Each structure stands twice: as structure tokens, then as C-alpha cells.
């Protein structure tokens, strides 16, 4: 059985030696080990994938006793994670995730889809995923947030995936899900923050458009970036065509960002990501 | 002999027919014809590369008589254009252009290099290009501008190329060279406008860095974009390493933008470029 | 109403003038005109998008009378084209096209899906597309081909799209659909022709993997290339992970290639494509 | 002082622990640690960058005593490596490396340039690098090889860089420099092996062209790939224009491959590279 050990700690000498020795003493076999020191903040990150048999609590206790008191240590097994997808009207990101889910490529269970519109109910239910519509017409701001939270809390989820969810989540909501909300931003952040980035990009006459997957913090579009990519365009694109072309890079970049999260490859520190 | 006809005009019916018929009546042979209509502004752009013998003034007069009174018509032959390169201390963009010049790949004569420092004199003179240093310590702002203009006016140049020229050109200077100044911006505009974009990008934790070649207008970093590209980076890059990695994309993007200009492929309209 | 005129002809002087003048004489308005001359073969290609009212046969006859006797002239309106998708077991390319179809992004009607297996029936029928399985166990080679042709001939289709159809189509079949079959090859042709290109790529230790959409001719993998793209990989990828990562570039490149075909942007000549 | 420890060894349990503990026992501080296990060959690779004071032989002996008898262990300091560049007539790769050398970006000393022609003597000497021409007209095959070796042996070099050296090196020559010769191949290997890949690519109608930096083994174009990249092209490119455009990707890919080698980031195993 394979497990992944994640350690984020103030840097001190001998960290790799201590961790590796503890693993070795239990006859655990390191298959992949990545390590990074943020020299600006003197902070240490380590991701170790190992095989072998060990009781989680035993290993964690031993590591805690041996490492820095402020070290954050977690141990992940290979069980599928659970996610909920939030979306609005566009089908490309949701559909792409549903297809990956269906083929078994997405190492996660999609527990539910939540939207502020009914448009994507049919698509979601085609793939037998429960769909919840919490509209913003009949619900006040507070009711909306409350109902969303209620639905989410019915499931035990690891990540919320904003698959073109076109509504700003209030800080009170976001605060429940620190580094658990992954968004696709339809631009290469930090350019074109805010509404209709394709129109902004068109007006500026840019020659490429991009997409950014990132964690959502309180400030819209300001969370830690996970991954980004672009496609080249030219003067023949209207902003609607830019938007259409942008969908391809959006869905790929969102899926890549989610995959990295599901594989426990991401550390968040100082509003940035370290990705192994 | 090959020539390139460039027409930018309010759109009216029959423009292609009129132009093509005039060329045909003189037994000129169209080798490549590109056309674009900006439907937002109802404006027409056409670039026609043709072979055959014709007196320029004859053709231009005939076209002027036939087309819209506000049409801008120009005729380019295949003679090498003349450029002056402005630079500061970094050698990668200047050196790249000097090498392309030496191999004959750059379809232009580099008439001179002008800098605010002495650092690149040696490199420039290695390649036998006259080097002028107009420093900003002994020269006042007005003297600096005046001396720069004097040097430039000694040569008849088609383009000024800012090859990492790290000083803002004042509007009074820029106004002499409408759509003739090509800059390399060390970022994918419009992100990270202003000083030290690599430090900005590092602090934001971006996963790619880019470069943009663009014409310089009065507003810094706001001129029409010619071409852009990016490279992917990760958390292991310090901002100095990002800057170092960025040099590769800077020099390539500047050379590409300049090449497009030298081949008479660019129209500027509404602060954007149409590139054929 | 907008139409697209496609002309492929031995090059002669005055072609653009003749065509544009005929269009102008009928008060048709050229919105986009692209032209290319293959100087190696002295062959002319022109794609003209125009608006205005004209009877197709009238315009075509006038053009035929005016142009070279070997000129190939066709006129396309903006009606949706019809396609049939062929697939085997993998869902990513089929699913991607079904989603684009559902959202209205794909400017085509998917008339049917045909497969040699039952695996993708459920997916296809979720999206209400008729699914036909012609297996290769109970059918002889001749029966298989015959049944495929029968199904296809029930519909009037413009293109057959091989969305990871993992069976070689015999020349007798292909000959019915000259430049009408679009395949996605899971590699950047011409590297790794044949079976399991990901295993081949892994064994060679390549640092990027690609995909190629192309028309299918008699020789497998040798038809005219439409579009290609790549993603970067590294030593941590097993060939199975390369294959998984490759799916993203496969589906995007197939969709791009099909889009170009559906928009009547592709000429095929001398086993290559000219794409406007 | 920083050093880099490289270990390539049959995989056994506890390797990371053993190495890290030895480093820790000498109060050495690991700044970056990368590790990979090739599960196909059960082989372990580790690159550890550390700071602190230690006598090289002491550390190496201790590691050798502790690790697998077949483990290959080496220790690199941060001293500049020495390289010799081989080239023929094209200036873009040589010039690019000379510029990087001049700016201090290239962490290496260029000891000499060797060519089979005189064409690039002037460029090389502009940058004060000794230039040796060993022509193939007046020298027999054996003399040519002998003279090349003699020149190279005057210097102590870490790598030979083939910067568009258009002559096949015989196995007897290559055998002297196992994993020390870095070539730029003007294609994305393994496509278009052999002469004039741009003409081959043109004839095949490809939509992108690439470049590959790789180590040279006995078989031409078959050595371990270091890095690859591509640029997109279209039907308007003649093969000469493809070649011209290809230069940009060639020089960047060669410089990237060399940089990885100079930073001691590359392991070669089973005709592939592992790059940390």
C-alpha cells in the first residue's frame, strides 16, 4: 500500500535525515521524494511517497515528536477524494470533469453538482450525479449561502471545484474551506481581473489568451495560483471567438490543477503554491 | 521585382475588385493577398504582395483616384529597412539582433546603437555598428532628448528598436516616431506594468512568465501589441532566475515583432495591430 | 446571408481580379479574403467569405466561364454540416465532441456514432445520438466494411471523424470518402507511426508528446496534416501516464482540426493542407 | 559553500535515510533534494544540493562504505565547468552561447571553438575565444579525428557542445566522451532523422517544427534526449523559412540542455535522461 507524507515546517538541519530514518526504521520504502526550501521564508517542504505497512497514528506521532513543534505533518493514502463541483451555465468544464470521472481518469468521487441555475441539471444527471440548484432570485444572499453550506455539509468533501461558477463567493463562505476551493479563472492572472476578461483582452488587442487555476481566498482572483496556460490568437478573433477558444484552455487548466490537488502534490505557503 | 501594397481604408463595396483589377490591368501578378475587415469599426485592411514592373507613382495615383478619399495607401519595395537600436546594459536582445544582422537573417541595416550607458559599446563595436552613449548624469532631460534626436536624424531610419532600453521615452520624443518604435516588454502585457515585473510576478506566484513586443505610444506599456509568448516556470525560480529565464523569451519575441514590421505585415488601428 | 467561395486552380494572372470583379458586379461584399500561391506547383488557392444575395448556380457558372478550365470552384453556405463519429473504447474524444455539440459550439450535426465495441453506447445515447456497433468478432472483414458503409449511407454526411477509432480502415472503404475522414493520431506525426506510440515514445525517452489531426488516405498515418500540438513531459511519466496526459492534447487537436474543416478553411493539395 | 551530490544506484531500502543521515552527521544542510526510482529497472537516482563544510574524499568514502557496491557517487562543487564548442557555418547557436558567456549567464568557461570551416573564426575571435579550424579537405578522416582530439586534450573540458556541427563524429571519437557531448538536433527526435530535416518536414506538410538537445552516442541522433521544444508553422513557410524559424528554437533548446548539464541536473540511464 502506498502513502504520501506531506511536511511543511520551519527549516532546521537534518529534517530529511530525521524523516527518512523514521521511515527506514519501519521498513518503509521511499519511491519518490521531493523537497524544497523557501530561502526567503526559511521554510521547508517535503513530499514523500512510500510503500510498506505502518499504522498512520504511530508514524505521525513519531514524526511529531522528532520534528519542529510548528511542523505541519499529514499522511495521505490513495483513497479517492471526494469533490463537489459548482457551476453556472457553461458546460465545458463541468462536462470535461464528468467525462474524466466516467472513464476513471479522475481520481475522485464527484458527490454533487451545485449551481445557481437549472441549465446544467440535465448534463449532470445524465452522468448520475446529484444536482442542486440554489438560485439567487428567490433566495436572499444569506439564504443562498446557508443553503449552499447545508448541501455541502451533507457530504464529506475534500475540494470544491468552481467549474465556471460565475458568482463571487462571500468571505464567510470561503472561510469554511481554506485551500479547498479550486477555481478556474478565464485569464492568465493577474491580467484582466474581474468581469468579462475576454472583452478586456479583445479591447487591449492581446495576441494570446490564457487560463489560471487557483485556490480561492477571500479576495477574488487573488488566491494562490496552481497552474496556467495560454493559447495564441490573432486579430481575426472577436471577443466571442476568444471566449470560445478560451474554453479549451480553461477546461484543461482546471483539470490539471484539480489533478495536482487530488494527488496531494500542492503545498500552499505565503499565498503561493509549491507543487511537487 | 516584388512589391507590397498596403491599404487601410473605410470599408466600401468592391475594394478588392478595384485594387485587383488595377494590378491586373498593369499585368502585375498577385502572389499573396490578405484582407481583413474590422466589423466593429467598418474598416478595411489589405496587404498584397505582387511581382511585375510598374512605376510606383503611377500605381499609387491610380489607386488613390479609385479608392475612398480617406484610404491610406502605401507601396513597399524589398529594399532593406534601416533601424537604430536603443539599449541600456543587458546584452541579450542587442546581441541577438547583431547576430541576426551578421548572418543576413535580419532584413535590415542596423545604422547605430544608442544607449544611456557605456556597457554595450564593446559588443556593438565588435560587430562594427556605431555606438552612441547619451548618458543621463551629465545631460539634463531636455539635453538628453535633444541629443538622442540629433543622432537619430543623422540616419534615415524606419524603426527604432528598444532592446531592453530601461528608460521611459518622453511623449515629445515619441511623437516623432508614430508606430516606428518597437519595444520588448518583459512581461505578458497587460500584467505587471511598470518596474521590475519579474519581482511582481514572483511575489504573485505565477506559473509562467512572458514577453510582449509592442509599438510605443505616449503611455508606457500601452501601445499596440505585436506579438507575445510565454515560458512555464515553477516554485523553484527566484525572481532573479525568472528574469534570467525571461531573457530567452524576450529576445525571441522582440526579434519576431521586428521581423513582422520589417516585412511590412503590420497595420496599426484603434491601438491594436492587424498582422498578415 | 454569408457564403464562402473556395477556388483551387492552376495559377494564372488576374485570378483575384476576375473573382473579385464578378462578386462586385453582383453587389456582394467581401468580408474576408485569403489567398495563397504554391510557388513549387504554381497553384492558386483562394477562400472568400462574402455577404449578399446571389443564386449559387449563377455565380458558379459565371466563375467557371471566367476561370481556368481545371479550376475547382465550390460555394459553401453557413448551414450546419453533418458528421458521423467513429470510436472504439476511449471516451475522451467522443465525449468532448458530444459536449461541444450539446453546447452549440460545434457547428455540425452529429448524425450517428459507430464503433466496433459496445463500450461507448451509453455515453453516446446519453446525448441522444444513435449508436451503431459493428463488431469485428461476428463480422468478417468484408461484412464489417459493408455494414459500416450501409450505416453511413443512411445519412448524408460531410465528414467522418475518427475519435480514437483503433482499427485501420481498408483502402476500399477510404476511397469512398476522399478528404472527408479526419483522424486524430496520438503522436506528432511522422514520429511513432503505428501501434502504441506512447510506449514507443517512453522507450525513446522523449520530453514531449503530441497529437496530430489529419485526413486519412490509403496509407495509415500518411494523410495530409491539419493541425498538431504537444505537451511537455518528463522522466517521471510511465507510458501509461504519458497516454493519460496525451488524451488532453488529442481531444483538443481533434476538435481544432474538425472546426477548421467545418468552417471550410482547408484546401488539400499535394498531400498537404493549406489552411486559411 | 554549496555542493551537489549525485547518486545513481540499484534501489535498496533506506537509501535516502542513509545518505541524509551521513550529511546530517557532518552538519551539512540539505537545500534541495530530488529523488526518482525507475521502477522498470529498479534503479535509484538522487541529487542533493547542500551547504556546509566537508572534505570531499571523506564524504565520498563514507557514502561508498554505506551504499550499494554498484552505486555511482559523485560530488560537484560550484566551480565553472569548461566546455569546447564545435560548429560549422551557421552562427546562431555559437553566437547565442558566446553572448551568454559574455554576460556571465553561462556558468562555464568556453575554452575553444573548433570547426571544419573558417566561417565562424571572426565571430569567435570577436569574443576572444581561440578558434581552431580542422578542415576535411586537406585532412584524411583519421587525421581529422586525431587533430580534433589533440586540440581537445590541450584543455580539460567537461562537455563538448555541438552547436550545429554538421559532420558525423565517428564512434572512435565519441567513445572518448561518454555523456559529455551535447548536440542540438534540428528536429523533434525521433522524427526526421538524418540530413535536411526541414526539407523532410516541408515535404510532409507538418504544422510544427522542433529541436532536440541530446547526448551523442555512437548512433547518430539516437542518444539520450535532454530537452525538446517546438514552434508552430503553417502552409506559407517554404523549407528555407522553416529552417530560418527553426534557428530560434534550436538555439534556445541547446542553451537549455547545456544549462541543465552545467548545473549537474542530468542522470543518464538506459539511453534516457532523468532531469532534476
From TrEMBL, chains A, B, C, D:
One of its GO terms (biological process) is one-carbon metabolic process. The keyword Hydrolase applies. Residues 4-82 form the ACT domain. Keywords: Hydrolase, One-carbon metabolism, Purine biosynthesis. InterPro entries: ACT-like_dom_sf, ACT_dom, Formyl_transf_N, Formyl_transf_N_sf, PurU, PurU_ACT. Pathway: Purine metabolism; IMP biosynthesis via de novo pathway; formate from 10-formyl-5,6,7,8-tetrahydrofolate: step 1/1. It catalyses: (6R)-10-formyltetrahydrofolate + H2O = (6S)-5,6,7,8-tetrahydrofolate + formate + H(+). Its EC number is 3.5.1.10. The keyword Ribosomal protein does not apply. The active site is at 221. It is an enzyme of class 3 (hydrolase). GO terms for molecular function: formyltetrahydrofolate deformylase activity. HAMAP family: PurU. Belongs to the PurU family. NCBIfam families: PRK06027.1, PurU. Catalyzes the hydrolysis of 10-formyltetrahydrofolate (formyl-FH4) to formate and tetrahydrofolate (FH4). This is Formyltetrahydrofolate deformylase.
Amino acid at each position: 500500500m502506498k502513502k504520501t507524507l506531506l511536511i511543511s515546517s520551519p527549516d532546521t538541519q537534518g529534517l530529511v535525515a530525521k524523516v527518512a530514518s523514521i521511515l527506514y526504521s519501519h521498513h518503509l520504502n521511499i519511491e519518490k521524494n521531493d523537497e524544497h526550501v523557501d530561502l526567503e521564508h526559511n521554510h521547508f517542504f517535503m513530499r514523500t511517497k512510500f510503500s510498506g505497512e505502518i499504522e498512520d497514528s504511530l508514524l505521525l506521532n513519531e514524526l511529531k515528536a522528532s520534528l519542529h513543534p510548528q511542523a505541519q505533518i499529514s499522511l495521505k493514502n490513495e483513497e479517492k477524494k471526494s469533490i463537489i463541483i459548482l457551476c453556472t451555465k457553461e458546460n465545458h468544464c463541468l462536462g470535461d470533469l464528468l467525462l474524466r470521472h466516467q472513464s476513471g481518469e479522475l481520481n475522485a468521487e464527484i458527490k454533487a453538482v451545485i449551481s445557481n441555475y437549472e441549465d446544467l441539471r440535465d448534463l449532470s444527471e445524465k452522468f448520475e450525479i446529484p444536482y442542486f440548484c440554489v438560485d439567487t432570485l428567490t433566495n436572499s444572499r444569506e439564504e443562498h449561502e446557508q443553503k449552499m453550506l447545508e448541501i455541502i455539509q451533507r457530504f464529506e468533501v475534500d475540494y470544491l471545484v468552481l467549474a465556471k461558477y460565475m458568482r463571487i463567493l462571500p468571505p464567510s463562505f470561503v472561510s469554511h474551506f481554506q485551500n479547498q476551493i479550486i477555481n478556474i479563472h478565464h485569464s492568465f492572472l493577474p491580467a484582466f481581473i474581474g468581469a468579462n476578461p475576454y472583452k478586456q483582452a479583445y479591447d487591449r488587442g492581446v495576441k494570446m489568451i490564457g487560463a489560471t487555476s487557483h485556490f480561492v481566498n477571500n479576495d477574488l482572483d487573488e488566491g494562490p495560483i496552481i497552474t496556467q496556460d495560454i493559447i495564441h490568437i490573432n486579430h481575426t478573433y472577436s471577443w466571442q471567438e476568444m471566449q470560445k477558444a478560451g474554453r479549451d484552455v480553461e477546461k484543461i487548466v482546471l483539470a490539471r490543477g484539480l489533478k495536482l490537488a487530488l494527488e496531494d502534490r500542492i503545498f500552499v505557503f505565503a499565498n503561493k503554491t509549491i507543487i511537487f
